[in-house]
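Possible regression after last week's pipeline update?

I re-ran a chain I had predicted before the update to compare outputs. Posting the input and the new output here so someone can diff against the archived version. Not blocking, just want to make sure nothing changed silently.
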Amino acid sequence: MLVETIAYTLIGLSVGAGALLALPEYFPASRTLTASTAVIAALLSGLVSRYVLAEQEPGASLAVSAVCSALLVSVLARPDLVDRTAPRRARHHRHA
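New output (post-update):
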């Protein structure tokens, strides 16, 4: 149980960090809110799926945890607030 709880927490942290790193302009709320939403969603959905599956499929519980965490973090996304007229940040390429 402890190992799965740690795994759910790590899944939530990775989903929250991934969302903030991939699309930071979509999350105007604080980083703490986004990360904590991801962690709590991963923990709750993982524990519920573990109970529903009667502890038979730990891999499925981990997958459900990741999907539910991503879905609940996406609720916080605000693409309507993104300024689409501003130029995107250019990535600097080094030429050899």
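Follow-up from reviewer: compared with the archived run. The chain has a mean pLDDT of 84. Marking as no regression found.
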